[in-house]
Fold this protein.
Amino acid sequence: MTHTAGRMTTIVAALLAVALVAGCGSSSKKSSAAGGGGASGGGKIALVAYSTPKEAYADLIPGFQKTPAGKGVQFTQSYGASGDQSRAVDGGLHADVVAFSLEPDVTRLVKDGIVPSSWDAGPHKGIVTDSVVALAVRKGNPKHITGWNDLVKPGVKIVTPNPFTSGGARWNIMAAYGSQIAQGKTPAQAQAFLAALLKNVVVQDKSARDSLQTFSSGKGDVLISYENEAITAQQKGVKLDYVVPAQTILIENPIAVTKNASKPSQAFVTYLYTPAAQTIFAKKGYRPVLKGLESVRKFPKPGGLFTIQKFGGWSVVSKKFFDPQTGIVAGIERKLGVSTASG
């Protein structure tokens, strides 16, 4: 290698290091898929995730760094609304590991060649945590909220994110819709219920974490939320209770390693499925995907629990309910004057 070539290599490496520390990634899809490779020491991992597991990763990352595979590994982290984060990676934000709220935010990256099509081939099908949709209420439950049907009563003020930016909001919507089907209502009646529920929503923030902050500040009577988000709020001292409705949806949160990710990235994702890591998730309020950890936290078992497969899976649901032009929810939101723009 010539002196000039060596100097250029050093400059390029320095610039890449600055970009990773800044968390700003690259400006093209091709380079967002290509990780930084093995850096000095243990390497680097750029984690791009949805908003709610930030507290979990605050413990999971040090846990991984204590393992032989994680020794010396450095991380950059980015958190935000799941849909926004997925679109950012699709548009060039550098990511080695993506952890999103729902499957379509990963499959978008599969379609554009950033995540391999085999991302969900493992025993857990790419799902790293489970949860359920719950109803967070003010301490003491002054509005006497016991289930979904209470949310459409006059005077009940609801906080939930915008389903066109937030993956959590889409889980919330499908939980509400499915609750009516589970009670024997027709699809038309379930759609009418969604319209009545969304009419009672006073704020639709960009992400689930933003909605929690809005609720914590005193706005609204009910926050439709992940069960784990309500638990996180309690752990932070927010004065709220929460109700797991008799009919609710099983939330399944995916994780994936991008193509050409940095060397330790797969080891990190593998670590997240270990009992140690799944115990950390459970302590933060997530339902672990590993069996045998039931003693870590006792989670209620709703009798009317259903999955997104009840409605054909996300490929069907995304088009039918959340297409910005033709979707059922888009039609309801436009009548309420709510934006259906994705970002």
DSSP finds 13 helices and eleven strands in the chain. Confidence is low (pLDDT under 50) at residues 1-41.
